[in-house]
Design goal:
Shape: globular
Largest sheet: 7 strands, antiparallel
Mean pLDDT: 93
Order of helices and strands: EEEEEHEEEEHEEHHEEEHH
Low-confidence stretches: 247-254
Strand content: 25-35%
Structural class: alpha+beta
Distance between the termini: 38 Å
Number of strands: 14
Helix content: 25-40%
Length: 254
C-alpha cells in the first residue's frame, strides 16, 4: 500500500489517501485537546495506544455483528480504514451522569441512569458541537430519518457490548462518543475510534473521584498521570482480548 496525499487533519488523527480509492490511512497523533481545542497539549504515546485499543475493540465489535470501517493496522499508530462519508453527528451514549449532562441538568455526578441516554451533537467546531433535538436535526438535514433510527439502534447495541467488555477490564463505562459514516455501497459503518479519548472510563476498584479516572478527563481536569492511565487501559484491553475471558454475549441478531 502506498500513501498518497493528506486528505484531512483533525485534532487526533490525520487521514491520507492510498492507492486504493476505497481505503484510507488514519495516522493517530499524540496531540491532546479539550474544550473544543481551547486547551491543547500532548500525551506521550497516545496515538499508538488509541490506535491499538480502537483496533481491538473494532475487531471485537465486528465479531459481535457491528460493521465498522476498520481493515487492519500496518503500524502501531496507523489504521487502514474503509473510506466513508462521515455523518456530521457526534453520537453520545450515557450510562452514568457526568460531564456536560451534570452541568446542564443539575444531576449529581455518578448518578446511574435508569436507561442509556443517546444524544446527538452537531459535528461543527465553529458552532461548538451543539446538542441537537430531533427536530433541529431534521431541519438541518444532517441525516435521514432512517439513518437516525439505525444510528440510535446501533449505538445502543454497541453500548450493550462495550459495557460488558469494559467491565471485564475492571472498568466502568460511564459514557462515550461514536461517529458513523456511509461507504460507497451506502452501508452505515461505525467509524472514528473507541479509546480513552472518546470514552469516560472509571476504575471499578477505585472509589476516589479523581483516582478512578482512566480517560481524557485526566488531561481536561489536570489530574496528572495521564500517560499511565492510558497505558493501564491498553494493558487491560490486551489482557481481556488475549484471554477472551469476558462473558459470552448475545449477537444483535439474537
Amino acid at each position: 500500500m502506498s500513501v498518497n496525499t493528506k486528505l484531512y487533519e483533525g485534532k487526533a488523527k490525520i487521514l491520507y489517501t492510498t492507492d486504493d480509492p476505497e481505503v484510507l490511512l488514519a495516522d493517530f497523533k499524540d496531540d491532546a485537546t479539550a474544550f473544543n481545542a481551547q486547551k491543547r497539549g500532548s500525551i506521550q504515546g497516545k496515538g499508538g495506544i488509541n490506535c491499538t485499543i480502537s483496533s481491538k475493540l473494532f475487531q471485537q465489535l465486528a465479531a459481535y455483528g457491528i460493521k465498522t470501517h476498520f481493515i487492519d493496522c500496518p503500524a502501531p499508530n496507523q489504521m487502514r480504514v474503509r473510506a466513508v462519508k462521515i455523518v456530521p453527528l457526534e453520537v453520545v451514549v450515557r450510562n452514568i451522569a457526568a460531564g456536560s449532562l451534570c452541568q446542564q441538568t443539575g444531576l449529581q455526578i455518578g448518578t446511574v441512569l435508569q436507561q442509556p441516554l443517546v444524544e446527538f451533537y452537531y459535528k461543527d467546531d465553529q458552532l461548538g458541537d451543539p446538542l441537537l433535538t430531533r427536530d433541529r436535526l431534521r431541519l438541518l438535514k444532517l441525516a435521514t430519518e432512517e439513518q437516525v433510527d439505525s444510528i440510535t439502534h446501533l449505538a445502543l447495541q454497541i453500548n450493550d457490548f462495550l459495557k460488558q467488555f469494559w467491565q471485564q477490564c475492571g472498568i466502568t463505562l460511564v459514557d462515550f462518543k461514536l461517529e458513523f459514516g456511509v461507504d460507497s455501497q451506502q452501508q452505515l459503518l461505525l467509524a472514528d475510534e473507541i479509546s480513552p479519548d472518546t470514552c469516560r472510563l472509571w476504575d471499578i476498584a477505585e472509589n476516589d473521584p479523581n483516582r478512578r479516572v482512566m480517560d481524557k478527563d485526566r488531561f481536561r481536569r489536570d489530574l496528572g498521570n495521564v500517560e499511565n492511565a492510558y497505558q493501564e487501559v491498553l494493558q487491560r484491553v490486551l489482557q481481556v482480548v488475549e484471554n477472551q475471558n469476558y462473558s459470552k454475549v448475545l449477537s444483535p441478531e439474537s
